[in-house]
Design brief:
Elements (H helix, E strand, L loop, with lengths): L4 E2 L2 E2 L3 H4 L8 H4 L8 H13 L3 H17 L3 H9 L2 H4 L5 H12 L7 H16 L3 H18 L2 H17 L3 H17 L3 H17 L3 H17 L7 H13 L3 H14 L6 H17 L3 H18 L2 H17 L3 H15 L9 H14 L3 H20 L4 H24 L3 H20 L12 H15 L3 H18 L4 H7 L4 H6 L5 E7 L5 E6 L4 E6 L2 H16 L5 H11 L11 E5 L13 E2 L2 E2 L5 E4 L3 H9 L9 E7 L27 H10 L7 E4 L5 H6 L5 E7 L1 E3 L9 E3 L11 E3 H4 L8 E4 L17 H8 L3 E5 L5 H16 L4 H14 L10 E5 L6
Parallel strand pairs: 3-6, 6-9, 10-11, 10-12, 12-16, 16-17
Antiparallel strand pairs: 1-2, 3-4, 4-5, 7-8, 13-14, 14-15, 17-18
Helix pairs in contact: 3-4, 4-5, 5-8, 7-8, 8-9, 8-10, 9-10, 10-11, 10-12, 11-12, 12-13, 12-14, 13-14, 14-15, 14-16, 15-16, 16-17, 17-18, 18-19, 18-20, 19-20, 20-21, 20-22, 21-22, 21-24, 21-25, 22-23, 23-26, 24-25, 28-29, 31-35, 35-36
């Protein structure tokens, strides 16, 4: 799907943001005899498209194609034909267009250099909005061919498009380098359309990263360049991204003023697609302001343009948003009409049903409020079945992440409905099934492929999906669910997450796995209120909590305070009152197991404050991806190996140097050696004294990825890795531990999440004494991080971190942790005692609250 997003979903920006086209050689144009000559028509259309005016160019290309065909100049006709694909991409399925282009490229009439290059350019433009990895390869070919043919402006644009693809793939370093190079080249070569394009997309990327002030500076340059350059298309990406940036800065008045100014400047009918997006953006601003009457009005304006254009994607996306606005206004009949229109519109794009689960969940919520509970239950189940089906055939990572986000939105609503009806066991099963699916999808390896002609099974799934949307027959849902279950069995997913997704444990079975002092708190964040399930061995209750936005805002504020090495007792107390105080069972249970949701994955619960003291002082906290995973861990058979070894310790960066570092979101360049952690050597060696010999210790240059992976890792009970780490929030598979560089070139020194999953461990404990090992993407696949990957690989529990570490305090905390373990304390209690020792020295939470135990806290070593 489309990777440039607004907060409401994915923005379809092909027309406004397309970047490259091929100018017909001037020598050829000079032979045009009259204004109706197809060569002159083609030149005129190329000039328009070069300036990103694809809508205006389309009819000119169509006429050129007709005339070339009459003259039997088929290669030129094909050139003009594929040039019309960009406007078509607004309303037609992208896989279908890409398949058509693939066939065109293989045609004999596509072999002339100009036509072949043109097809690749159009293919690359559509792929950028479909799958960035495919686009990157195509744009590399365009760059090579255009350089060979002397099309240097196009070569520069192809380089910029590779930068955009790199950004979408999470390769930030290369993305910045390539995009900025293309941006500067566009300035130097006086290519204002490209200048606007790359400034716009680079700025949009900064908005996605939350760097709003920096983004506005870049986006303003794009807008200014477009205003000053004759014939350049209106910079819709830049304008919409600036509106999002202003929203991010809470400058709502400025955002609305920019939107209104844009609407005044876009009066022409051929810019209806731009007006659709601007009105949608205005609706989002009013949504932030909770002015729901105005939200509905703005979305209504946007839908008017979408209907006029038969812009099905726009109706699907904004129709659902409008239904939610009506729902807030208690205009339920109008809400139902709006969401039904969105659901019907999606059937016009049977290969792109990716917004249907969200709209089905919206309709279910509306029906619940109308008192039509049975229909609501059926629709929620239909939504989940559809997500399962679409995930099984998701063509790109972007589609997969969109579906995961929608599943989260859907299960939160269904959970709330079931809780309000008093069906707590059913609510528990719903949330466990969804979390298992999310984790399974996040941790699984996926082989995404280029668009292909659907096989018989895929066609059947599509048929069932459409039937599922169009009917309320429970037999259809059962039929589809069985087909999906059979497909999952063929995948042989035996992971913890896979088991959770297919067969979540019932509530009673989970309770049987809990000790008398344990309390599981399973959070579900939602609007207008959130929930927590409090599960003990004897009881289960649900409690209402504040709204998701409020909780996430407070959690983000407190995390920033801590990472700035400060304290804020008032904020810490407010979070305690919001998250823990409402739970009656909290007062009588000592071991708290958190199943987090949303931004709570990044909140250090141990640093909350109750009655003037950190909760760390009288409670043990740990984390589990789900209640089912906790139970499955406790069901695992203990290792019966006779050759078990106690301990392996790894410390790669042991040379003296600065004691503190911050690790970025992407791996360092090969020539950028991570800063030394001199205390790590003493850390791993001191910890080894707590275990019976022989122990294995890898230090300095010997601590390579290859050396570590060559060890009999399934023999060790404890793995302690004192390394650097980084978290890739966009593509969690690339999060990694950083080992010493290999002198033989046998490995890249990065033990990534995808590699960790393939390790075979029997460890009671894995300690990741490294930065950011518990950090994963929030809002899509909440639990995709290094710690969970080690749990999937066979570890009973993993100590992870929520931010960068300070070397000296980390060494002290770790040695205290293992000393307590050697004295017979459980892992959860041992970590609490080690953190408490630093807290009682007067150190701020920055130095001790980053560490959390994921998995089974009751294990002993």
């Amino acid at each position: 799907m489309f990777p440039l997003k607004s907060r409401a979903g994915y923005c379809f920006v092909v027309v406004a943001g397309s970047a490259a086209c091929l100018l017909v050689a001037c020598a050829v144009r000079s032979h045009a005899r009259h204004s109706g000559d197809p060569v002159e028509l083609l030149a005129r259309a190329d000039n328009l498209s070069w300036k990103n005016q694809w809508i205006e160019a389309a009819p000119v290309y169509a006429e050129a194609e007709r005339r070339f065909t009459l003259e039997h100049r088929l290669s030129e006709a094909l050139y003009a034909h594929v040039s019309q694909f960009i406007p078509r991409a607004e309303s037609e399925p992208l896989p279908q267009l890409l398949l058509e282009l693939k066939g065109d490229l293989e045609s004999p009439i596509a072999q002339p250099a100009e036509t072949k290059l043109r097809i690749l350019v159009i293919e690359g433009m559509i792929e950028t909005n479909y799958d960035a990895s495919m686009a990157r390869v195509t744009w590399e070919r365009v760059q090579e061919l255009s350089e060979h043919q002397g099309h240097y402006l196009l070569m520069a644009r192809a380089m910029g498009e590779q930068g955009i693809a790199a950004f979408l793939l999470g390769d930030i370093a290369n993305a910045k380098k390539l995009t900025l190079r293309a941006w500067v080249t566009a300035k130097y070569l006086h290519d204002p359309a490209a200048h606007v394009r790359y400034a716009s997309v680079y700025g949009a990327g900064l908005v996605e990263l939350g760097r709003y002030e920096e983004a506005i500076h870049v986006l303003d340059e794009a807008i200014k360049t477009a205003k000053e350059s004759s014939g350049v298309a209106y910079p819709t990406i830049a304008v919409n991204s600036k509106i999002d940036a202003l929203r991010g800065l809470h400058r709502y008045g400025n955002a609305l003023a920019l939107a209104d100014e844009t609407i005044q400047r876009l009066p022409r009918g051929d810019l209806d697609a731009h007006l659709f997006q601007i009105y949608t953006s205005k609706g989002e601003v009013y949504e932030d302001l909770n002015n729901w009457n105005e939200v509905a009005h703005q979305y209504g304006q946007a839908l008017g343009y979408a209907r006029h254009l038969s812009y099905w994607r726009g109706i699907v996306q904004t129709g659902g948003l409008m239904a939610q606005a009506y729902e807030h206004e208690n205009r339920l009949a109008e809400a139902l009409t709006s969401v039904d229109e969105a659901i019907r519109a999606n059937t016009q794009l049977p290969q792109e049903l990716y917004f249907s689960p969200r709209n089905l969940s919206i309709k279910a919520e509306i029906l619940a409020r109308m008192g039509r509970a049975a229909e609501s239950h059926s629709l929620y189940e239909k939504s989940f079945a559809l997500v399962d089906s679409l995930l099984a055939t998701a063509p790109t990572p972007n589609v997969e992440r969109l579906l995961i986000t929608q599943m989260k939105q859907g299960y939160a609503g269904y959970f709330e409905l079931l809780c309000n009806e008093g069906h707590i066991p059913a609510a528990f099963r719903t949330i466990e099934r969804a979390r298992g699916r999310i984790e399974s999808q996040a941790l699984a390896s996926h082989a995404f492929t280029a668009p292909h002609v659907p096989n018989a099974q895929e066609k059947e799934i599509t048929r069932l999906n459409l039937k599922l949307i169009e009917t309320d027959d429970p037999k259809v849902r059962a039929e589809l669910s069985k087909a999906l279950y059979d497909a999952e069995l063929q995948l042989d997913d035996s992971t913890l997450a896979g088991k959770t997704a297919r067969r979540p444990m019932d509530l009673k079975h989970v309770q049987e796995h809990l000790g008398p002092t344990e309390l599981v708190l399973e959070y579900v964040l939602n609007e207008p209120q959130s929930y927590v399930l409090a599960i003990t061995k004897e009881s289960v209750h649900s409690y209402q909590l504040p709204a998701e936005k409020m909780i996430n805002r407070l959690a983000a504020q407190y995390r920033k305070v801590i990472r700035d090495k400060k304290t804020d007792p008032v904020l810490a107390q407010q979070l305690f009152k919001s998250l823990l105080l409402p739970v009656v069972e909290y007062r009588s249970k000592q071991s708290i197991i958190i199943v987090p949701d949303g931004d709570l994955h990044l909140l250090p619960f141990v640093a909350l404050i109750s009655d003037g003291s950190y909760v760390l002082r009288d409670h043990t906290f740990s984390v589990s991806p789900s209640s089912t995973v906790l139970s499955l861990l406790r069901d695992r058979e203990p290792s019966t190996r006779q050759d078990t070894l106690d301990y392996v310790g790894v410390a790669a960066w042991t040379l003296p140097g600065p004691s503190e570092m911050r690790v970025g979101m992407m791996p360092p360049p090969p020539d950028d050696r991570p800063q030394p952690l001199p205390e790590s050597k003493e850390e791993v060696e001191t910890i080894a004294h707590n275990f019976a010999p022989p122990s294995t210790i890898l230090l300095g240059s010997d601590a390579t990825e290859s050396r570590f992976k060559a060890l009999p890792l399934d023999h060790y009970r404890v793995l302690h890795l004192a390394l650097h780490g980084y978290a890739d929030l966009e593509y969690p598979d690339r999060s990694a531990l950083i080992f010493a560089p290999s002198t033989t070139g046998g490995d890249d020194g990065l033990l990534e999440v995808r590699e960790i999953r393939d390790l075979h461990l029997n460890a009671r404990l894995v300690t990741l004494s490294a930065c950011n090992t518990g950090v994963g993407p929030i809002g899509e696949s909440d639990i995709a991080n290094l710690g969970n990957a080690f749990v999937e690989a066979g570890a009973e529990s993993v100590v992870t971190t929520l931010w960068e570490l300070e070397d000296r305090s980390t060494e002290k905390l770790m040695t205290g942790f293992y000393m307590s373990l050697s004295q017979g304390h459980s892992e959860g209690e041992a970590l609490r005692l080690a953190q408490l020792e630093l807290e009682q020295l007067g150190l701020s939470p920055y130095y001790w609250a980053s560490f959390e135990l994921v998995g089974d806290p009751a294990e002993t070593i």
